[in-house]
Amino acid sequence: MTTTTFPSVLRELLRTNQRFLSYAASHVTKLDFTLPQFDILITLGSTPGMSHKKLGEKTLITKGTLTGVIGRLEDKGLVERVASKKDGRSQIVRLTEEGNDVFERTFPEHLEFINRLFIDYSAEEVATLETALLRLQQAIANLT
User: What does the radius of gyration of the chain's CA atoms come to, in whole angstroms?
Assistant: First the structure.
């Protein structure tokens, strides 16, 4: 790749990311969530819960932001923090019964909303896109 092609690829990658986040947020806000709140909700869905550290790794939300987002979800009655059975010093964040109900109702709806982006893509095109993105992600990981 030449140095003149790279900036245009980077620009399109960033534009795509921004437009995707905006598209996803347009649906999530109708559900009365922020993207980070919904990310936590769907990450905890269908799990017995997880530690703050694991939740941060899976959502890519920073520790400081994660604490506030979890607090707001607690205020809504959707998550709770309980002592870990393995390590009494740490806490597990898990969905409450109400949180699980919200997850089961909203996650399929959101997946359907996101899948509209790929309606004109063949299975092969989706696989090619995924492979290219994973390759880029691995290249970044190898350099950091």
Answer: 18
- The predicted model scores a pTM of 0.86
Provide the pLDDT confidence category of residue 89 given band limits of 50, 70 and 90: confident
Q: Is 89 helix (H, G, I), strand (E, B) or coil?
A: coil
- Hunting for tokens 């990981």 — which residue is that? 141
Query: Do the beta carbons of residue 81 and residue 49 sit within 8 Å?
Result: no
Within 1-144, strands assigned E span 50-51, 79-83, 91-95
Please give the structure tokens belonging to residue 101. 């109900």
Q: Is the separation of the CB atoms in 55 and 44 below 8 Å?
A: yes
User: Which residue from 141, 143, 144, 123 is spatially nearest to 133, judged by alpha carbons?
Assistant: 141
Q: How many whole angstroms from its chain centre is CA 115? A: 15
User: What residue type is assigned to position 91 of the chain?
Assistant: Q
Edge to edge, the sheet with strand 79-83 lists 50-51, 91-95, 79-83
Q: Identify the pLDDT of residue 5.
A: 62
CATH topology of domain 6-143: Arc Repressor Mutant, subunit A (1.10.10)
Look at residue 22 and give its three-state secondary structure.
Answer: helix
